[in-house]
Write a structure and sequence with these properties.
single chain, two-stranded parallel ribbon, alpha/beta, 15 strands, 528 residues, seven-stranded mixed beta sheet
């Protein structure tokens, strides 16, 4: 099973590799599965050859022949310290511990106005003194500026970018609604067309109002039986792009915006969506709203479906010789300039021209929804090869939307959330998947509960036409991690395994009534 898994996940046959190349290849594979880990190689090969080998880029350091054990040990500790370091949080703790006199407009700073009060002292007792010791309106003393970071906030953002596989990360302290508005104002202008899911979060509509972009709404597939909507089929997005090309307006299309994953757990095949759209317009920008999906970076199964994971895969595909061969084969069949009236374009996988395509991807994450961040902690992750065209506009968007009085505690919690995910995110996500599958199993097997309740699987939430692998449900007979990985790689849509959609109508409840019952009688909080 492991051999089959590797062949699907990595397309690798280890038997054909030269024995001396196995170490480097293994390092590359480990970095694909666990990119947050430090990888060290002990070798007797010529290190100068390794230094110039692109496949060795995943290796943090190469030790030639036998190094002193202490040297190896110290390097490992250095790597751990690098991930454990939280620049802003560390500076905030130092600031809170200093005997500082405050002469600025923030009475709550240092907590004196609270602790000395006869009427609100309980507020300080509830939260603790450190919260107020860390409050300040100053950006001096090593705390850095949120609007123009040059110190510890800048380093913290760079560490987060490394963690999620982005070129740049921006911290946002008033939620992903603001993160999305920043992206619209930075990369779109009045008259630009944005292809967007009609069921997207309302912040996207307001973002386009602010930037002057024109939305072209596309529809998600309906789940009529459950009064829900899924995600937008790729065919629908391609139809919109080809219709605009036919009308001579393709040059106006600036961006495609989709929610990944949806509130109900539908995950796009992000790499395929971007590749086929780039085959029609090679300079498209993509905004993936991953408000509920930030944790997925730390799952080897889900990472391939994240915006940053798919962007890296697209770049790797473009750089391989087979990419140009695939495009040339398509040209022989369909021609270099795709005819928007050609019906074959909607039914086959389109290949972009690797020489013309640009990888321009933006991902917004509600860190507070899926990691250990305080409320409203969010990030914008950028992997845009033409980002230099938007640097100034992006900074202006930050100035427009970000507060000049950002909450230092939210920034610190973003810093700490990154540290936790780099050091134990894999464990936490795998445990969440394990618990979710266990709950599914108990609901399905319990003799009484199963009569009235059920958790919907992919066979109920995703039409068969979007599941080429035939994957039905995580608990279906014969299903295992191998079949799940095939679904993650091949299917147009798959389900987030950590998300549970519980059908309670057969028990005589609608969703709102059942949620209120859980809250009032059992103190259980759910999202509906």
């Amino acid at each position: 099973m492991l051999r089959d898994f590797l062949s699907v996940y990595e397309h690798l046959d280890m038997t054909v590799e030269a024995p001396r190349e196995i170490g480097v290849r293994l390092a590359h594979m480990i970095s694909r599965i666990r990119p947050e880990l430090d990888i060290y190689l002990l070798t007797d090969r010529n290190v100068e050859q390794l230094a110039g080998d692109p496949s060795a880029s995943a290796i943090r350091r190469v030790f030639y022949e036998v190094e002193e054990p202490m040297e190896v040990h110290l390097n490992i500790l250095e790597g751990v310290r690098d991930r454990q370091s939280t620049p802003h949080f560390d500076n905030l703790k130092q600031y809170a511990a200093k005997p500082i006199s405050t002469f600025h407009a923030l009475p709550i700073a240092r907590g004196k106005s609270i602790i000395k009060s006869n009427w609100i002292r309980e507020f300080g007792e509830f939260y603790g003194l450190n919260l107020f010791l860390a409050e300040t309106s100053a950006t001096t003393g090593g705390l850095d500026s949120m609007l123009e970071p040059t110190g510890n906030i800048k380093v913290a953002q760079e560490k987060f970018a490394r963690a999620v596989g982005a070129d740049h990360v921006f911290f946002v302290t008033n939620g992903t609604s603001t993160s999305n508005k920043m992206v619209y104002q930075a990369v779109t202008k009045p008259g630009d067309i944005v292809i967007v899911d009609r069921n997207c979060h309302k912040c996207h509509h307001y973002g386009m109002v602010l930037s002057g972009a024109q939305p072209l709404y596309v529809e998600a597939f309906p789940m009529t039986e459950y009064s829900m909507y899924g995600a937008v089929p790729l065919r629908t997005v391609k139809e919109a792009l080809l219709a605009l090309k036919s009308a001579g307006r393709l040059d106006k299309v600036a961006m495609v915006t989709l929610t990944n994953c949806t509130f109900d757990g539908h995950i796009y095949n992000t790499q395929r969506v971007m590749a086929e759209c780039l085959a029609i317009k090679p300079d498209l920008i993509f905004l993936w709203d991953e408000a509920w999906f930030g944790f997925a970076r730390w799952s080897p199964f889900l990472r391939m479906r994240t915006a940053m994971g798919a962007a890296a895969a697209l770049q790797a595909w473009r750089d391989a010789p087979k990419a140009l061969e695939a495009w040339q084969a398509q040209c022989r069949e369909l021609g270099e300039d795709l005819d928007p009236q050609d019906p074959r374009l909607l039914d086959r996988v389109l290949v972009p021209d690797p020489r013309a395509m640009r990888v321009r991807v933006y991902e917004t994450d509600s860190v507070h929804k899926s990691m250990s961040s305080l409320r409203q902690g969010s990030i914008i992750a950028v992997r845009d090869e033409d980002y230099e065209h938007h640097v100034s506009a992006f900074h202006e968007a930050v100035f427009i939307h970000a507060s000049t009085s950002p909450n230092a505690q939210i920034i610190a919690s973003l810093d700490v959330a990154r540290r936790q995910m780099e050091l134990e995110g894999y464990e936490l996500v795998m445990r969440a998947i394990e618990v979710a599958l266990a709950i599914r199993r108990e609901v399905a097997n319990h003799p009484l509960i199963s009569r009235y309740f059920s958790v919907l699987g992919a066979d109920k939430m995703i039409p068969e036409e979007f599941r080429a692998s035939g994957f039905a449900d995580y608990l279906a007979p014969g299903m295992n991690w191998l079949t799940a990985v095939k679904s993650f790689k091949e299917d147009e849509f798959c389900l987030d395994p950590t998300r549970l959609t519980l059908v309670c109508g057969t028990a005589g409840y609608d969703g709102t009534t059942f949620k209120n019952l859980l809250a009032s009688r059992y103190n259980t909080r759910t999202r509906r």
